[in-house]
Specification:
By secondary structure, the chain is an all-beta fold. It is built from no helices and 31 strands. The chain has one domain: Neuraminidase (6 Propeller), CATH 2.120.10.10.
Length: 481
């Protein structure tokens, strides 16, 4: 049950970050299958420069395709705390795909890109990660570029892993800079191995893999070189992980959370979806065994009128750590229908006060159990305040011809024991059915949320109702104490 804390104020006005796509149709360099949604922007991520909290960098997918990936990944930066944003031109953007200037010479010779991620190190260097893929063949790669000037320009692409095996697909990457050591940055994802030739640009859109271990690489010299990719957790045959994300603790320990999908199990944990994690106390050199957090009880999200699917972050847990010195607190959020008898997804929250070794019984932090809530994000401010953002359909009615969707924030100032009344980030509802259809109406498997001092910066994709020429845009705002 949600316990309500006293209200806190401060959602600012929305600022539109994205604009018109800067490349022409057909820039992929090969015939494509599926449907492209021009001028759509989805799946954003954001981070704040710890050396200058007015400097923010965000990333997103530009021109989403129905069957996987986008024409390109783009980035923008702010130098005034999110009030205004600049999108660097092509030629300055990292060329993670052909539409963004990728070529064999620069390492970005791919038809599409997906899963954008950005992270700042404590020295102010930013790292931008891409999963770059092809639709016409199975070639794909994990790529990274570094910026040393707050996102204004980006350096050459580094290839972390490139594979051209029809039985393999690397998926759902994330990257975390170590705020306790400026030399260290960690990248993690799941490597899906199929028993038949299923790996292609659409493999990322498919469900369960024959095998899906967690793989990891790191730089220990500020991006000058990266270690060979290696497995750090293997859930066994016919099981997989997805949604790997590393949080760094104040003592330098690493906690990698993921959704473990177990299809075969004769002992605990049983079949189904599970929030789980592994830990490292030596900067990723070695890792612990699996620690179970909770079952993940999503039932998915649909339009209540006709059961049309809405693609959400339903199998992607999100993690955040309290970075204050001496604390051992971690927080995880995910979608779960346990609070409604398995009828409607809500936002589940669990906390650890011992560095991830043990976890609290999940509670609901979304407000309206009469509707579906989805795609949560979580972060922690400098003063320890926790924020959780999410979408829901509170404004929607059966009589409405549109799927009216809002985006909310709720906060806790006591470590997640009680939560403030939710505050709306969207300035009125938008129609989710106007978003790109990629196995469901889609604004992203995740959305951005980052703290800047004691403020929070939500960075999310909202649909432009009824605008087929410009289906979605990325918006930012500030949530003040």
């Amino acid at each position: 049950m949600l316990t309500v804390a006293p209200a806190v104020a401060g959602v600012g006005p929305l600022t539109q970050v994205s604009g018109v796509a800067p490349f022409a149709p057909g820039c992929n360099g090969a015939p494509q299958t599926g449907t492209v949604f021009p001028n759509s922007e989805v799946e954003p991520w954001v981070d704040v420069n710890p050396t200058d909290t007015a400097n923010i960098v965000g990333t997103w997918q530009q021109n989403r395709w129905s069957n996987g990936g986008a024409d390109a990944l783009l980035t923008a930066y702010s130098e005034d705390g999110g009030g205004t944003w600049t999108t660097p031109p092509l030629g300055v953007q990292p060329p993670f795909s052909r539409c963004a200037g990728g070529s064999p010479a620069n390492g970005g010779d791919f038809e599409r890109a997906t899963d954008p991620w950005v992270t700042f190190g404590p020295d102010g260097d930013a790292y931008f990660m891409s999963l770059s893929i092809n639709d016409s063949n199975v070639d794909h790669a994990m790529l990274v570029s570094r910026s040393t000037d707050g996102g204004q320009t980006w350096g050459p692409i580094t290839t972390l892993l490139r594979e051209n095996d029809p039985n393999v697909f690397n998926d759902k990457n994330s990257m975390t800079a170590d705020y306790t050591d400026a030399d260290n940055v960690y990248a993690v994802w799941d490597r899906l191995v199929f028993p038949t030739e299923r790996a292609s640009a659409t493999s990322a859109e498919r469900g369960l893999a024959f095998k899906g271990p967690v793989v990891f690489t790191r730089t220990t010299n500020d991006g000058a070189s990266w270690e060979p990719v290696r497995v750090i957790y293997d859930p066994g045959r016919n099981n997989q992980t997805i949604g790997n994300q590393i949080a760094v603790m104040p003592d330098g320990a690493l906690v990698n959370v993921f959704d473990e999908i177990r299809n075969v199990s004769n002992k605990p944990p049983r079949r189904g979806l599970h929030v789980a994690l592994i830990r490292s106390t030596d900067q990723g050199e070695t890792w612990s065994g699996r620690i179970h957090v909770s079952r993940l009880g999503t039932v998915g999200v649909t339009d209540p009128r006709d059961d049309a699917p809405v693609r959400t972050g339903d199998i992607i847990p999100e993690i955040a750590s309290d970075e204050r010195s001496g604390t051992d607190s971690l927080y995880i959020v995910w979608q779960d229908a346990r609070f409604t008898g398995g009828e409607r997804d809500q936002i589940a929250f669990s906390r650890s006060t011992d560095g991830g070794l043990t976890w609290s019984t999940p509670i609901r932090v979304s407000s309206n159990v009469a509707t579906q809530a989805f795609t949560p994000s979580v972060d922690v401010a400098d003063d320890g305040t926790i924020a959780v953002t999410y979408y829901d359909f509170s404004a929607d009615t059966v009589a409405s011809p549109t799927l009216d969707t809002q985006y909310w924030v709720t906060r806790s100032t006591d470590g997640g024991l009680t939560w403030s009344p939710r505050e709306e980030i969207t300035q009125g509802p938008f129609d989710m059915r106007s978003a790109p259809n990629a196995r469901g109406f889609f604004t992203g498997d995740y959305e951005g949320l980052e703290s800047a001092g004691n403020n929070f910066i939500p960075f999310a994709s909202f649909a432009n109702t009824g605008d087929e020429a410009n289906p979605t845009d990325i918006f930012a705002t500030t949530v003040a104490p």
